Amino acid sequence: MTTALNPKDTDVVILCGGLGTRLKNIVNDQPKAMVDINGTPFINILIDYIARFGFIRFILCVGYMSHVIKEYYGMKRSELSILFSEEKELLGTAGALKNAEKFIRSDAFLVFNGDSLCEIDIKDFLSFHSSKRAFMSVVLASHKTPEDYGVIRLNGNQRVTSFREKITVEGKNFVNAGIYLFDSHILKEIPYNVKMSLEYDLFPRILEKGIYGYVTEKKLFDIGTPERLTMLRNYFKKAKYET
Predict the structure, then answer these.
(1) The domain that contains 20 carries what CATH number?
(2) Is residue 147 a part of any domain in this protein?
């Protein structure tokens, strides 16, 4: 793909259907993506951040307690188009993406994990993807202690050469920040109604098709554990986001 991508014509898929088992004592009455960050649901902070770059069409892959997210956006007035792709049973991250295929209209589309945030320049990420003619691009954050993230290796042209999940090696470690840009043909690689992971099942299978890593020094936050949730809340006490 060589033409520049326009944010207003590029769909954004957010994976927010997980159970959030490690946060069950904190968010047991709502989906993990709806966890409160100083008065605002995390998913709303994520969407506001993405929308600032000109994206207007969002597809939320919902599952566990999906009605909470759907009711929240049903009552919230917005100039954005927000659609819901609902899983009747847990399909994994790749399975959820396949389930949303009927809503995806753009030739290339963004995917965000609904429980993490890395404040990259998304327009620059789109330009990177186009310049590499990538089948898929992934945002990689530098991390000193990547034990809980997937370590990824690149060659000199920033092409991904291996996904080495949960392995720490000497030197600089790049970890998956949970932000992807996919050519729509990737959906053909995912079977219908099969539980499947992006990181563990799909990405190693399509490595030879051309996956490129967009490296950033921006900090990666996630809400996967109570400790990380506290870190994110402390960060946003200093940041001002419209809600």
Answers:
(1) 3.90.550.10
(2) no
> 198 lies in a domain?
yes
Q: Is residue 151 part of a domain?
A: no
Measure Cα distances from 190 to 17, 23, 64, 156 in Å: 18, 29, 22, 29
The span from the CA of 65 to the CA of 31, in Å, is: 6
Give bridge partners of residue 110 from the DSSP assignment. 12, 181
Q: Which tens digit of pLDDT belongs to each residue from 4-24?
A: 799 999 999 999 987 766 666
Q: Summarize pLDDT for 32-81 with one digit per residue, the tens.
A: 899 999 889 999 999 999 999 999 999 999 998 899 999 999 888 778 99
* CB neighbour burial string for 47-74, b if at least 16 within 10 angstroms, e if fewer: bebbbebebbbbbbbbbbbbeebeeebe
Q: How many domains does the chain have?
A: 1
